Every structure is written in structure tokens, then in C-alpha cells.
Amino acid sequence: MKNIIILLFASMLTACAHHHHAPHKEGAPKVVKGTFGDVDYYTRSNTYFMGQPTPAALDAAKADGVTTVINLRTPEEINSLKYKPSEEAKKRGLNYYNYPVNSKEPLDIATLDKIEKTFVLHHKKGEKVIVHCTSGQRAATWFAYHLRNAHGENLQKALSEARDVGLTNEKLIEGIKSLEPTK
Fold it and tell me: 5: Cβ–Cβ under 8 A, 6 or more apart, which residues?
């Protein structure tokens, strides 16, 4: 009986290991800048924020243990490429998702929530996840949203941490400022 109680308690801790509803107490994890092949990234806690990964960058990411790619580019942006990102990811055995975020339109909470659910699904298993767009701006914008909603960060702290992973686009910053936390 004692072992069953211990197992139940351990499983409850594991189940909510990702969702912190209070701000981080010990400060933000360290952000590291690096390169996958020919594409620069910022990484923090097994999450990589970057512009469009090339096939060579996907090879390097796969070799580094990345399992999942979340693409925030629109269909028009994807169609302008000389290769199909979904096929390139799948050829390498990577999970691939596309949730278009159009930087010319107001941020859509339903889309940000889809990104969040997919990210959490993989991240809570300890998987390495790429979140990307064309330049990394929309990926960093989603990160600010994530910090506010999953971690309870205040707006200024969330924006500061998003800037650490590359957010500089004032229109996207204003978009995040206009959203109320959903939790």
C-alpha cells in the first residue's frame, strides 16, 4: 500500500511538471545562442527558437536530439520555399506541425493555444522542440505568450525573456501587450 501511494504521488508530480502557475522563483533558465548547420538559433530548456530551418539545419537538429518541429509560417511563406518543410522533417523522423501565425494580422489566441498544447505535449516528455517562423520573431512572440499563460509571468518579465530569444518586432510586442493571460 505504501508503494502505491508513493507511485501515485510521483505520477502526480510528473503530470504537472511543466505547468507552473506561479512565476519562476530562481530566475529564468539560461539562453544559449548556437547554430544548426546554416541556421542560427536561441535555445532555452530544450526549446529552440529560430528562423526557417534548412534541410542541413534539420540534419544537425536531429543529430542534437531534436524530435519535434513547430512551424509558425503561413502557407504562402512555405510555398515560396524550394523544398517542403513537412517532408524534410518527416524524412528525418521528426514530428512536424504547422500553425500559421500571420504577423500582419492581430495575434489569434486559438492558434497560440494550439501551439501551446503541441509544445507542452512534447516538452513535458523531455523532448527537444524547435519553434520557428521566417526569422524567429513569431516564435519568440509565442514564447512570451507561453510564459504568461503556462508560467504566470508578468508582462514585462515575459517580454524580457522573449527578447532574450530574439523578439524585437514592435508590432508583435504590442500584440502580446494587448492579450490578457488566459489562466
Answer: none
Q: What is the pLDDT of residues 109-139, one digit of tens each?
A: 999 999 999 999 999 999 999 999 999 999 9
- Tell me the longest C-alpha to C-alpha distance in the chain: 60
Question: How many Å apart are CA 118 and CA 149, to the nearest integer?
Answer: 14
Give the single-character DSSP code of 105: S
Looking at 3.90.190.10, 2.30.120.10, 3.10.290.10, 3.40.50.300, the CATH number of the domain 31-178 comes to 3.90.190.10
CA dihedral 121, 125, 130, 136 (to 10 degrees): 70
Contact call for residues 130 and 53 (beta carbons, < 8 A): yes
